[in-house]
What does this fold into?
Amino acid sequence: DAMVIQNPRYQVTQFGKPVTLSCSQTLNHNVMYWYQQKSSQAPKLLFHYYDKDFNNEADTPDNFQSRRPNTSFCFLDIRSPGLGDAAMYLCATSRAGAGQPQHFGDGTRLSIL
Amino acid sequence: AQTVTQSQPEMSVQEAETVTLSCTYDTSENNYYLFWYKQPPSRQMILVIRQEAYKQQNATENRFSVNFQKAAKSFSLKISDSQLGDTAMYFCAFMKHLAGNQFYFGTGTSLTVIP
It folds into this structure.
């Protein structure tokens, strides 16, 4: 089945230690998104890629970076995680074009020690 | 800016009964899209239903239907014959037309279906 796959499901890192979360898709969608979701809150968009074009949300901290080496893969890098970065991180994809729904992965739950 | 409001943080419904989740939004756009997503505990977010603002007919997907009131900027979700598997967080989302595919999410409604 075509899908959005996030690895790992659970990630633990130390305060200040860089961490990378990965997302892959078999849907061949142009657009890939990264969201941060804290407990009982709505997902918050961090950034998205439209093909190779990177679009950062205005309030996304500089601590968060992303890479998309090819259509299938997208990475979220947190350069120096703080305690406030502990959250669920969701990857989503969509086709380009008006009104296209987003397809979400299972998420990676990040804990900071 | 677009805002999406879900005024019911938590709801419960008896199995086999019907429940309605409310969603209102604020926009100056005329063309847009509205979605309901379901996020079960510890599972991925999945699309429940989608509505195009320029279509007057309310979208339906099996037991799920919406009441879309464009003038009132209201987009409620009705779940008929509730099942235990419907227990989840439900998010309402707004998307502009032809301005990228970014969602504006509401804060969610946690629905519990009681056996």
